[in-house]
Design a protein that fits this description.
heterodimer; A: mainly alpha; MetI-like fold; 11 helices; B: mainly alpha; 76% helix
Chain lengths: 338, 298
């Protein structure tokens, strides 16, 4: 029995098939094309910011050169172009600046404590199941479009403000000029601020919940182990270590409140006089644009563009501030972690 | 030293501790109350819309154009539904490829130095009020030409891009690096890896982001107010030629009217819009939960 003899056959190695040139081409081309396309898309996004600034300033140039920076504090806003009318075609945004600040301040005053408290509840107190239901519900509030909040503000919140809220506040706190005579419709600066607070609330609540969840468990447990009550732990450890983050959350809420146009237009009542009474009507930068843009011409349009430029500058500054705070905070946390 | 009355049992808190416990209970109660307030606001909003809108909802309301004449009764909002779908659809068609490309650049090709300005730009775009974007698009496309549905789409696309780009890049980062490495090791080119492996792996998450962005865009009113608000009352599909009727403008106009029948129509339109948005949000949430479970399993 001879073992099957394997004849030493030299197998000629098959000549390596040349790489298909078409595939190499599509791959090389595909890679470059994709890199190129993604870079172009990213550059377009960055360029868009520049284009927005340019276009807005360009549209506002008529008003900027006519009124200059004094636009910010002069409060005459008179679109009439008829000859003989005093201050015809003169524009100033003093009233708008005032009411933009007032509405945003009231909105934050209402929404920040409430939002932080909701954050505390969701991150530290809510039993698992309940928190898993309430958290998404609060976020859902952010999804309600502002035009619907405005509609609700006119037809539900306004009448509720007219009675009993406004008379009650006026009767009890009427000696402070802020709580002056109630408005006849229930609409006005205060009602608009409440609507803004509803829109800002989910932002503050969601951010503060995430902030509080990120506070290290060891710190919370350590505080409780030292005999602190839950509230003392929350105040001393959780809130204290989240200060910067809460500032950033407030600023982001502010950014939303400052720029909201539609709901404010519907509710604030388009007033043009500056008064201390928050129940009176007023107008913000954003709501004035929404109200008058479609009717405006010439210098009037240009002045509304100027309002948009001011909003743009405020919003860019506010967002930069929030990011700076967050970055500084992250750096500090990075050092602390080391 | 504090004098301890030996007759009180140790488990009863007294003096300072009792006060601290009272403060604790009060503060925790306040936090619970805050959560109740937020949920109550949402409930009141939704119930108001559902209650006042439900009586309007009918086949006629959804399929008929509004009647001719100011504040005339009857008819429906078919024109606005068609217009909104077109405006948002065109906006999505513009925003989606753009945002996915940006997200691919950020996660696959960028260096930290090149990524920073792009992220900054996206954050700034995201922070801009929609009324500012609307005025910008007016200056860019409408001034001297007239309103068009497309101009509104363009503004909505600017609002959608940062939203979709952010969720997409987060989702692309979740795709395990090993999958990319394996594809590389097999000699697969970058673009085939991205289109064949990375994007399909993140598809669920990307869709979630897109749906949320669409839900947000559908309710945006400032852009359509400035860019597509002067329209007749019949269904049009001429996106590039004229302003299109749309749901947010219908609500806005009818809410400012003094006529009760207009208010009723506004509630009806609000119900249609809010149902669309709620279904989108809940659907997106469910999709995200499934995606997470799948990622966990991996």
């Amino acid at each position: 029995m001879g073992a099957a003899r394997v004849s030493p056959v030299t197998v000629a190695a098959p000549a390596p098939a040349p790489l298909s040139p078409t595939r190499r081409f599509t791959d090389r081309f595909g890679d470059r094309a994709l890199v190129g396309l993604t870079i172009v898309a990213s550059l377009v996004a960055a360029a868009l910011i520049v284009l927005i600034i340019y276009k807005l300033v360009d549209g506002a140039s008529g008003s900027i050169s006519k009124f200059g920076l004094a636009f910010l504090w002069h409060s005459t806003w008179n679109p009439s172009t008829s000859v003989g009318v005093r201050n015809a075609n003169v524009f100033g945004a003093g009233t708008l600046l005032y009411y933009t600040v007032v509405t945003s301040a009231i909105a934050l005053l209402l929404a920040v404590p409430l939002g932080v408290a909701i954050g505390v509840y969701l991150s530290l107190l809510a039993p698992g199941r309940l928190g898993a239901v309430i958290g998404p519900l609060v976020e859902l509030l952010a999804a309600v479009p502002s035009v619907i909040i405005g509609l609700w503000g006119i037809l539900v919140l306004g009448p509720f403000m007219r009675s009993p809220i406004m008379p009650a506040l006026h009767n009890v706190l009427g000696w402070i000029p802020i709580f002056g005579a109630p408005s006849a419709t229930g609409l006005g600066v205060f009602t608009a601020s409440v609507a803004l607070a509803i829109m800002v609330l989910p932002i503050i609540a969601a951010i503060s919940r995430d902030l509080f969840l990120s506070v290290p468990m060891e710190l919370k447990d350590g505080a409780l182990a030292l005999g602190m009550t839950r509230w003392e732990m929350i105040r001393g450890v959780v809130l204290d270590s989240s200060r910067a983050g809460l500032a950033a959350a407030t600023i982001l809420g502010l950014s939303r409140a400052l720029g909201e146009a539609i709901a404010v237009t519907q509710i604030i009542g388009a007033g043009s006089a500056i008064t201390a009474n928050v129940f009176a009507t007023g107008d913000t930068f954003a709501s004035r644009i929404a109200e008058q843009f479609n009717d405006s011409t010439g210098l009037w349009t240009s002045s509304l563009f100027y309002c948009a430029v001011i909003l743009l500058v405020i919003e860019l500054a506010v967002n930069f501030a929030a990011q700076t705070i967050v970055r500084r905070f992250e750096r500090r946390m990075g050092i602390a972690a080391r | 030293m504090a004098v301890v009355d030996p007759s009180t049992p140790l488990t009863v808190a007294t003096g300072n501790l009792a006060r601290r416990r009272r403060v604790d209970r009060f503060m925790r109660g306040a936090a619970v109350a805050a959560a109740v307030v937020a949920v109550a606001i949402l409930a009141i909003l939704i119930i108001s819309v559902a209650q006042k809108g439900a009586s309007q909802l009918s086949i006629t309301f959804l399929t008929k154009d509004p009647p001719v004449g100011l504040s005339a009764a009857g008819g429906g909002i078919a024109d606005a539904i068609v217009g909104s779908l077109l405006i948002v659809g065109v906006a999505t068609a513009m925003a989606l490829p753009m945002s996915v490309l940006i997200a691919i650049y950020l996660t696959e090709f960028s260096t930290p130095r090149t990524a920073r300005p792009i992220r900054l730009a996206l954050d700034l775009l995201n922070g801009l009020p929609s009324i500012v974007i609307a005025v910008f698009v007016f200056g860019l496309l409408v001034a001297g030409h007239g309103q068009t549905g497309f101009a509104a789409s363009f503004a909505l696309a600017i609002i959608m891009v940062p939203l979709i780009a952010r969720t997409t890049s987060e989702m692309l980062l979740l795709v395990p690096k090993e999958l990319r490495d394996a594809a590389h090791a097999l000699g697969v080119s970058r673009w085939r890896t991205i289109f064949g492996i990375v994007l399909p792996g993140a598809l669920g998450g990307i869709l979630t982001g897109v749906v949320l962005a669409i839900a947000r865009a559908a309710g945006e009113t400032a852009p359509v107010l400035i860019l597509s608000s002067i329209f007749g009352n019949s269904t049009t599909i001429d996106v590039f030629g004229t302003a299109l009727p749309n749901i947010p403008m219908t609500i806005f106009n009818d809410s400012e009217s003094g006529v009760p029948s207009d208010h009723a129509k506004a509630w009806g339109a609000a119900l249609v819009l809010i149902l669309f948005i709620l279904i989108g949000n809940l659907g997106a949430r469910a999709m995200l939960a499934r995606q997470r479970r799948k990622a966990m399993a991996r």
